[in-house]
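Continuing from the previous page of notes. For each protein in this section, the sequence appears first, followed by its structure tokens. Read the first protein now.
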Amino acid sequence: MRKIIILIFIIVLGLSAEAYADGSNIVQGKYRVVFAVDSSNSMNYNDKANMTGEVIKMFLDSCDSGKTEAAVVFYSDSILSNTGLNMISDKKEEYKKSVSDFAKRGSTDIGLALKTSVDLFGSINENDICSVILFSDGETDLSVSGTGRTLMDSKNDEVYAVNKSKESNIKIYTVCLNKNNKSDYLKNISEQTGGKTYSLKELSDVSGMFTDLAANVTRNKISEVSISSEGGNYKFTVGLPKGYARETDIIIQHLKPINNLNTDYGKENFESYSSNLYTILKLKNSDKDSINVSFSAENSNIKVSAVNYIKIFPRVDMPENTALLNLPIEVRLVDVDTGNTAGEELYENLKGEIEIIDDISGEVQRAALGNAGDYMTATIQNTNPKTYKFKAEVYNDIYRENSPYKEITLTNNPPEQKEDNKISVLKGSEMEIDLNDYFYDDDGDVLTYQFADKKYAENKNIDKNILKVFSEEEKTESVFLNVSDGRGGVISGDIILEYMPAWLYYKNTIIGVVLIFILLIALYLIYKYKTSENKEEPEEVPHKTGEIFTGARFEGYFLKTLSGNDIPVLNWNASYIDNRHNITLGEMFGILDVTEKLPEANKIFFEAGKNNTVVFYHDTDCIISFGNRNILRKKKEILNYDDRIYIVFEDNSTEIEIRYKRVRKNNKSYV
């Protein structure tokens, strides 16, 4: 079995009910269609198969039901019935029934039918797409009419209808149902309004005619879908513009009924309509990428087409400052049903370009759009500020849409001069002055400079933005310049040149150096004053090898303990530490069996000094005071007889006072 399934991605080229930009919004108009149905007696012969009714029903079933208004006017030599314009969603079944069983009688008055039809539109919104589709088998014939109307009356009504259609942008489409092909009269009416004429002779003509008519009326591309068949079994796949469309209609046209219609989509996800000549699947807000369809039929005259009613349109956003040289343009996708901007997922693989049309010359420029995640962007050169029309086209594999034209007047701000225009120049030396330091342009333009008069060019010249000056004289002069931004913005400004001798030119530099020198001297004097205040503080005394504790004694008084233990006065005399060069407080605690947990005592040191002194230092976070000052970590202090050290240990509770004593010999004994 040979199976061919061709995936067609539907690319909608036209606008769904033309969208336009209104400030920050995109507004989508409605389809407004009037079907003018010839119900004269001759139609009993020329339209026995009711091709008119089939075309109208197919249109009603395949239109964008949420955006379409329709009316049906039945006419002969008078208006037999007029429904008025109503939303299809409210009147579709009623309209379909009426075009299936309307009676045909009387003569033909096409002028009256056209005038009645165009008058139904009333006030027309510029965004609406308005169409009249007139069905007839020939021309106006009032020869046997009893209405009293004449051919001139009908012609006048026809002229009125054509003129009003041209003024209001109503297009008239005519469908000729005459086996003798009398369509020139109807063709003339259509062409005057930008419409088109179609001919229907047999049921087999409906298929091709309807696709073209619907595409013109809705201004959408109706794409033909490739199908595969074998033994009366048909299959096809339609790509869906996931997220971009509110509705996708698949139209199966057939001369005989089809059977066993199946899809992989689930019946709850679409609506199905059918008649003698067609079957329509209407998918709303599809979240799938494609749909597979199969059915069986007894004949091979099958045509499948699809149309997407797009709800996502690009919108051109301009920056507030339209005078910038490098003008950033942003394009966003907007849901016309909700007014919300689309999320990043709809920008995936999206490409596009911005089109800029000169409003006067019609010259067209284009710039590629880059994808920035949740918007697209391009930068254009605003080299010739005036009014332009901007339009964006964005597309990927399944979507292609144009934004409505947006008319923007690009502007330009002229250069400006800074307030400070005085320039000091060293006499007798050629100097270069950057004029951009004295003039600026907020639009990002490159400024050019010229002397306002040749007299200002003496001993001076301009190279781009650099002014070169020289003078042997000590003087002050004004130089007038014309400053241009290259886009029509020109100003005149002046700078004042003050030529001065070196001592005056460098005056500020000299004063600055002197002030720095004075500051350094002041800092030095402050430093010397501070060091002189602290010179009485003991300096660190280095340990001298060979010094030992001889006749030394320490007394320890625990003022407070963390444990609450009452510890008696401690005495460490020379008998314990004689012949030692140094000892820690922790070792002293060990000698006298002090059991308080004070590990930092092992980092509190006593060293033997010279001339019967003791060197004290520590490497702890204890608070240790000596006299009226604290002893810093690793700072050495010299202890003389009767000096006292106060220690608050790291537990912030235990306190001890240590006194340094000397053991004096008295009658050859220690006291």
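Done with the first. The second protein uses the same format. Note its length before scrolling.
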Amino acid sequence: MSNILSHLRKILFIVTLCVGGWSYGAGHLWAARAESTKLLPKETLVYVRVANVPEFVSRFRETGFARMLADPQMRPLVEQLYGKARDAVEEVKDQTALGLDEMLQIPAGEIAFAVIARAEGQPVPVLIIDTGDNVANAKKLMDKIRENNPEPDRREEQIEGYTVIVDEVATVERDGTFVFTTEVGVLGEILRQWEGIAEQNLQNNPKYGAIMRSCRAKDQDPQFTWFVDPIGLFKEFSKASFSASAALAFLPALGLDGLQAIGGSLAFSVDEFDTLAHIHLQLDNPRAGVLEALALTEGDMKPQTWVPGNVSAYNTIYFDVPAAFHSIEKLVDSFQGEGRVAEEIQRNVSDNIGVDVIKEILPLFKGRGTWITRRPSIPREVGGVGAEVTNQQAEVNIRFGRDMDQLIAIEVTDLAQAQKLFDQVVAKFHTELGERMEKKSWSGMAYYQFTVPNQTFEPVDEEDSVRPQPCVAFAHDCVIVSNYPGLMKTVLGRQDASDTLAESLDYKLMSSKLLRQVGDAKVGALTFDRPEESLRYLWEIAEQQQTRERLKQVGENNRFFRTLDEVMEQNPLPPFSVVEKYFAPSGGVLTNDDSGFHYIAFSLKRKTE
């Protein structure tokens, strides 16, 4: 196993050198040859592929993030950072033989990484890089790597008419394409596949085919795809381990042998989408054991009326908690004896809190959970637009990282009963809680606020404190928990509010496109995100003098941060309004059908002209 990891590290080092800067590389059209799915065997367990690096780069440059980096007010900072990286590579050019620009131009077509099963021994990693017309520079780089890493047992072999260089990593180059692996025999198989002699390849793998059919980006081929056979991978690596082989025998009993495969795709600039991603988890049908406990259900995705319109992100999910619990209970009891789970929960939890978890708490779960986040307000000194954050507040935000107010709401079947059970627990632990819990009221609705002790900084006030102040409330048919009181108060005061997320135009647009993507599939979860809101807060923190001072301190012993500080000193960040226009809402939906779970996520394109 250690040898495999050692070889893998070498291969990943080569990948890093070759493709570490795709966003700046160009390259030519890739050489005409069979794609890697036809070169790799059917027994491939892991597969990660960039179909065409130049196309990947070209399509990425059409995204909002890339256009933001190319903005005239951002370009000087980006170019200077790139220049610093280029200078750093030039300093060690005697170890690479190439400058940064030359290395970034090496990838000219497909890049694929795979792990393949073998009849005997451990799985073997394979890396395929198409360098096209840049093969001379690729060879120069490889020769320099070998020169700096001398191997006494390095040799050359002839396989299928091609020269293979063999040391810890065996390498062959054909028609501008390099293949790296840790087993010489694998190179022979790939070269024979190249000639079309063998018929069984990755394209004939039914698991791979099912994943790719589910993850196709509309009518276009995605730029990036990946595939993993987790059980197959575990089986292969367990060959040399008795303990792993023993664990393997338990997979059917746990139901985990029904986990067929997982994979996905990513495409840039597809029609109206900036990015479009698919992830598919292929499961057996019917499900059993642990997989049966993944009790995703379906329901209305529309935000509840109490969700404010200015949230940064909204997530909702329908999950049958009692069904999931009883599936796990049945599974555990099958090993430890009937009723064992109930006994343990009664003894270790229910008896301690004074409430029967299984009989009283579980039935309260209605099935819907909602999680929202909102960017916190930052107090500012008098001085109008551009005034700095107060010194104390900037310091606590930088040091403790308060970046988002968060709130979770769990719908319950009986709100009064949930409140009653909570009061029972509070009464039992009244002495322990002491002054750390206070019952408060907002808009005529009660909530409980807890104090977290032992923080270095006291809050400016409770709305602006970086110190977490967890709150619990029973309202809107939900048990509501938040990390700060500000968002809790907003939610409690929204009985008849009109400014809701459900009525906001960007949410309506995103949700309609998301639900259109899945058609008639059963939707169990939905996410909505305003990425610019998350970035805005980080942008403001990055602009503060306290951040710069801390960056200088860290940079004294770290070259990367020292360089970053120097670049930002010469090229300050532009106003956030410059970059805000490049970001559009994003979202995702999770569906559940007989084949498994499927997640689709995308961000919309935003016109900036």
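What the second structure shows: The first strand starts at residue 44 and ends at 50. Residues 1-31, 379-401, 455-461 have pLDDT under 50 and may be disordered. We return to this in next week's lecture.
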